[in-house]
Amino acid sequence: MKLMNIAGLRPKKRKISLKKDEIKIYPYLLNDIDINRANQVWSSDITYIPVKNGYMYLCVVMDWCSKSVLAWNISNTMDSNLVLKTTQEAIEQFGRPEIFNSDQGSQYTSKKHTDCLKNNSIKISMNSKGRAIDNIVIERFFRTLKYEEIYIKEYENVKELKEGIKNFIDFYNNKRFHSALGYDKPMSVYKKMLHKVA
Length: 198
Known about the structure:
Blueprint: E1 41-51, E2 54-63, E3 69-75, H1 80-94, E4 99-102, H2 106-109, H3 111-119, E5 123-126, H4 136-150, H5 158-174, H6 186-197
């Protein structure tokens, strides 16, 4: 083919991501702060969940200090609508945090998501590139969810998956003792912290 100066046909590359200068990356704000109250810092991330014949994506918003899951959604697409919906549900139900931390994924750097945070006067914090440990609270939750629920079951369909995750999050928030919280339960700690502020 080289001698004959010919090449196989291939589709043109599609532009699937924004250029670096078209998105804004926000600094990581959690390095030197004492996180000691509810709604001081929320964090969010997306993880994949295996189901029969494929994957679904789970987005979660958590309160950093109490480790409570405030909102969650699953979708078959990992897009900005998934994170926007989850963030909006958390704000509608629990008010707003001072700081919202996430990774630098396109879902979180999208204009509609950052505008949602700005319109609610929430400071935006983003992990340093390649540092999942910057969002350690949610990474630990995902590990717990997968080892205690997802990996020991095989979900036949999305309905079963939603029900399984709903039941696990209810157990995690309201019944599971957490060593980092002095063996209290996340939602119990969250509510006690809010009560102290009031």
